[in-house]
Amino acid sequence: MKRSLLLFGLLISSSAYAVDNQIFITQTTSGTTNTQIDIEQLGTGNIVAGNTSNTTTVDNAMILNSTGVTFNLDQIGDNNKFLSDINSNTSNFNFVWTGDGNQLTGQWNPSGTYSIDNTTWTNTILGGSNTLTVNYGVGADAGSGQVDWEIDGDNNTITFNAASAVTHTGVNSWNSMGSISAADSSNMNVDWEIDGNNNNISAVINSKFVVHDWEIDGNYNIVDYVGINNSGASTGNGHTVNLDIDGSYWDIGIYQSSTSANDFVNFSSTGSGTSTTHATLCIIQSGSGSTTC
Amino acid sequence: MRLFALFSLVLAPQLVSANIGSVTDVFGVAAVFREAQENEASLDFGIESYDDVRTAAGRIELQFLDESILKLTEHSEIVIDEFVYDPDPTKSKLALNFASGTARFITGALGTIDKDNIKITTPTAEIAIRGTDFTATVDELGRTLIILLPDEFGDASGEIVVSSMMGDVVLNKPYQATTVSLAEKEPSSPKILDITLGLIDNMLIVSPPKEEISEEELVQRTESILDFNELDAELLEDELDKNEESLEFTELDIDLLDVDFLRDLLDVFEEIDKETEEDVLQEEGVLAIVGTSLGFDSTTQISTFMQGQQVVLQRQVENTTRLELMRNTGYTIQLDDGGQRYNIIINTGGDVYISIVQQ
Fold it and tell me: A284 contacts in B (CB within 8 Å)?
């Protein structure tokens, strides 16, 4: 077992609030196991990224290759940045953003070096106007993964793709399935708990089986979900979306496309719109990639 | 005077020994089909098991051995599936199948058939008799309207149970009625119609009373295939004026010139039933739903049912969509099944728009 953790330009905050703390992580040695990282950044403009980043723009992601990772990150403050390129399996990640205007851009197992199956990711967004973009399990095994999102703030934008990049700007302009290369994210569970308002969530899942649970208590939230390619699922399995909405004025699109005809949408709502400001729900269950509501 | 505008009839010999009843009155065009042969239905014509009795521009009255009476109006058909007459009432049986039109059935006063052994079916309903007098109307879609009629004292003539595959209702009040639109749907909640026995009788009288109606008037009736002219209209207006406020059935709902009065009544009943239910439900802040039915709707393929404070719509054709919605919120739902579109409105609609595409 060899652990290689390089920290460049590490500035650890003291009890006084600091700004522009920058933590660079590069751990690429193969065979690394049981890595543990705990980071708490207080203040504004803090960064966790890669050491090759331009010192001004900080545009390269940290790199972490390991099995059995435990990674806890708390960015407490505004306008923080977390750029990550993580390859691991059988790991636990716990990320918390408390302030506003933070940025997460994550490639979680983009190369397929490691599978990220049996991994739990917990993402808690307590502030507002954060932008989080994660490509998860692209081109690799992401099976039996658990991804939890808790969003308490407002005006957050979250894009979560458990598939390779797709051209997808909304259910009504869904293009085709041809651009998606399968990642095996079978038996995934993704939970979304949204208590804030005006959040915009986009999720694309390319898998055999996935269970998506959405619990939305805030208002004016937008959800755009695409679940595709469950052709390998056995009878009775497939994509399941459970939507439980207590908020109002939501705009939700659910697109399930497969030829196996074993997808499920369970929608429960106590919220609504009004005659002038509607709440809308679009559900498409179709083997065709060109269907619109 | 009776007018007979006959079908092309082929007369068949009567098998008197097998008679289970006979034609006791006939007016206009009626026939008895027996073993693929069409027989003119004349007075005293013997009726046998498996006879198929039909009327065109005419009416007919049959009396069975137990003195049960069956009256058919114009354009009606009934098949006598089984009749077993035994001195022991428990061994006697009567099974009738109302195929279409309107019939009035009065069980026999002799009590020679246990009522449990009387089975009457329509395309969508079964009727178990614990009463004596009722009408059944079956339209071309198989929808059935059952009305329990009063006895000579104005009380309920007993009790009948109307059943479908999904449940049953009991009629035990005079003029209480129910409809069954599909065998796979529950009978509607019983409603009391604001009509009179005279009105029903006028529709079901086989031989118009000669002492009250002149020949000229009778010809007029016959030509219009109606036993329902201006004289009857006046009578009806008087009766209906007594309760103009009734929601169940009003004067305006009656088309006095329509021969299919009872069939119209079926439509009126369903409309009233729907409007009344919606009114009540709206008042209670619960649910009004248009475009799909509670229970399983074979057209939309949606199963709709109540679950606590929610109304649940579930559609499982290949993939499955289940909606658990608030019963007091307005929803506009558009369902697209391979290009076939259905619009469903819950309550007033418009607050929440839901589009479902399943292909």
Answer: 356-357
Instruction: Note the residue count of chain A.
Output: 293
**First-residue to last-residue Cα distance in chain B:** 63
Q: Which residue has the tokens 């939501």?
A: A250
Chain B window 287-346: which residues touch A at a Cβ cutoff of 8 Å? 310, 318-326, 329-330
The per-residue pLDDT string of chain A (293 residues; one tens digit each, 9 = 90 and over) reads 333 343 433 333 333 344 478 898 988 887 888 899 999 999 999 999 887 655 566 678 888 888 899 999 999 999 999 988 888 888 999 999 999 999 998 877 765 556 677 889 999 999 999 999 888 776 666 677 899 999 999 999 998 887 554 433 333 333 332 233 445 667 788 999 999 999 999 888 877 778 899 999 999 999 988 887 666 555 556 788 999 999 899 999 998 877 767 788 999 998 888 878 889 999 888 776 566 66
What 3-state DSSP class applies to B307? strand
**Collapsed DSSP state (helix, strand, coil) of residue B244:** coil
- Do residues A241 and A269 touch, judged by C-beta distance below 8 A? no
What is the pTM (predicted TM-score) of this model? 0.55
Any chain B CB within 8 A of the CB of A241? no
Residue found by looking up tokens 């056995």 in the block: A234
User: Which residue from A minimizes the CA distance to B358?
Assistant: A285
Question: CA B28 → CA A92, A254, B69, distances in Å?
Answer: 89, 63, 19
B322 → chain A, closest CA residue: A266
Instruction: Give the nearest partner residue to A267 out of B323, B350, B353, using CB atoms.
Output: B323
Distance CA B116, CA B92 (A): 10
Half-sphere exposure of A224 (CA within 13 A, CB side): 18
Q: Which of A275, A280, A285 sits opposite B319 (nearest CB)?
A: A285
The shortest CB-CB distance from B351 to any of A266, A267, A272 is to: A272
Tokens of A24: 């660079």
**CB-based contact A253:A221 (threshold 8 Å):** no
Closest chain A residue to B309 measured between Cα atoms?
A270
Q: Which residue has the tokens 């894009």?
A: A159
ipTM above 0.90, yes or no: no
User: Do the bridges between strand B118-121 and strand B93-106 make them parallel or antiparallel, or are there none, so unpaired?
Assistant: parallel
Q: Residue A264 — left, alpha, or beta (φ > 0 → left; ψ -120 to 50 → alpha)?
A: beta
Ramachandran sector of residue B198 (left: φ over 0; alpha: ψ -120 to 50; beta: rest) = alpha
CA angle, corner B294, sides to B291 and B298, nearest 5?
65
Q: Is B203 helix (H, G, I), strand (E, B) or coil?
A: helix
- What is the C-alpha separation between A91 and A35, in angstroms, rounded? 9
